[in-house]
Q: What sequence folds into this?
């Protein structure tokens, strides 16, 4: 779900509609199938996917009835902004779970990342309230300073998640856990960076082929994001600490504390 694509087109809404619907189906099936998937990570992923699907449905409705545009546009923008700031939360929850020691330095980074997500959502709601008169002038709306800030602000999550990968890489329980977690993190980074790049390019160009931008956006931004969340649903339950390494670490800390006293 990205701002520079006119999802009200019947053609443009099909691919993202299929992708997010598939993610929702997979998440619901997994939740029903086994208790291991009934975790906060999977639940928040499902909520993010539902937000995206609702936004797409709202946009799709305006393609058939333009008279409802004024009633749909503000709720649609609110959900889109919330969605864009929530997509990183499943990853943050995973790294918070990996960080089992409250005194670890990255604990505060995780809390700050959560706070940053809330800040972006609040700024987004303020943005919608102050820029509501520009919705009919789409180009001016896209050039809003607040929207620029929100888009750049989402890139901060890329730095957070890549930092957490580096901090927890050696503590993961298995090779499969490492591969799937790094894949999920990198796909998220590709999606956000591609999204921001396409956004700035389309802002600089006076004219561009909408279909080309749409295809690039789906392949480099929308699809990687759905795959990121899909991996969170399917594999977040194995993204656990390596227990022998954890025990060794705790034993070492206990020994240090004993000698220091």
A:
């Amino acid at each position: 779900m990205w701002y520079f694509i006119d999802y009200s087109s019947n053609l443009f809404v099909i691919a993202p509609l299929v992708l997010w619907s598939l993610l929702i189906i997979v998440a619901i099936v997994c939740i029903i199938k086994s208790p291991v998937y009934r975790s906060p990570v999977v639940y928040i992923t499902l909520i993010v996917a539902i937000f995206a699907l609702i936004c797409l449905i709202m946009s799709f409705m305006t393609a058939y009835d333009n008279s409802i545009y004024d009633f749909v546009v503000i709720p649609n923008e609110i959900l889109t902004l919330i969605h864009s700031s929530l997509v990183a939360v499943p990853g943050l929850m995973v790294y918070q779970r990996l960080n089992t020691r409250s005194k670890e330095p990255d604990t505060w980074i995780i809390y700050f990342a959560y706070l940053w997500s809330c800040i972006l959502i609040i700024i987004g709601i303020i943005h919608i309230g102050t820029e509501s008169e520009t919705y009919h002038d789409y180009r001016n709306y896209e050039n809003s300073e607040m929207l620029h800030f929100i888009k750049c602000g989402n890139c901060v999550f890329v730095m957070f998640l890549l930092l957490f990968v580096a901090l927890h890489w050696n503590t993961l329980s298995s090779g499969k856990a490492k591969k799937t977690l790094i894949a999920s993190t990198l796909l998220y980074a590709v999606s956000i960076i591609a999204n921001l790049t396409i956004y700035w390019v389309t802002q600089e160009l006076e004219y561009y082929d909408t279909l080309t931008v749409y295809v690039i956006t789906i392949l480099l931004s929308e699809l990687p994001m759905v795959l990121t969340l899909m991996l969170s649903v399917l594999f977040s339950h194995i993204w656990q600490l390596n227990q022998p390494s954890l025990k060794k670490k705790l034993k070492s800390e206990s020994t240090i504390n004993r000698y220091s006293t």
User: Anything to note?
Assistant: The radius of gyration is 20 Å. The domain at 10-243 is CATH 1.20.1070 (Rhopdopsin 7-helix transmembrane proteins). Residues 34 and 252 are 36 Å apart (CA to CA). Confidence is low (pLDDT under 50) at residues 245-257.
